[in-house]
Amino acid sequence: GILGCLDILSASLCGFPETELFSMAEIKSTIDLVMETVEAVFNERGEEEKVWGSMVKQALKRRKPGFNESYHGFRNFGQLLEEAQARKLLTLLLDEKSGGYIIQGYVHED
Prior knowledge:
The protein is α+β, with helices and mostly antiparallel strands. 43% of the residues lie in helices and 12% in strands. A three-stranded antiparallel sheet has the order 1-3-2. It has four helices and three strands. It has helices at 8-11, 24-45, 53-63, 77-86, and strands spanning 51-52, 90-94, 101-106.
């Protein structure tokens, strides 16, 4: 899994050169930013509407125009969402037809 990629020993196995390793703090702040954006999109759309990962990425790029998940050590935005799910921060459903993720729910921060 992705979590295994976050330590130095397995980084090269996961395809990240050692120079591209990211601190746990950087990864956490990236995920925090994603979670803030997930919450904003849910609030905007209402609980009944489907929230797609691609919507969150677009909203994130509006908030932080220079945002690029690969800069933060993720191959794609889906991998970043998977990491948030692995940390039990959100629930994803893979849409078989599009290959994209639907975000079914998230952990509300107090």
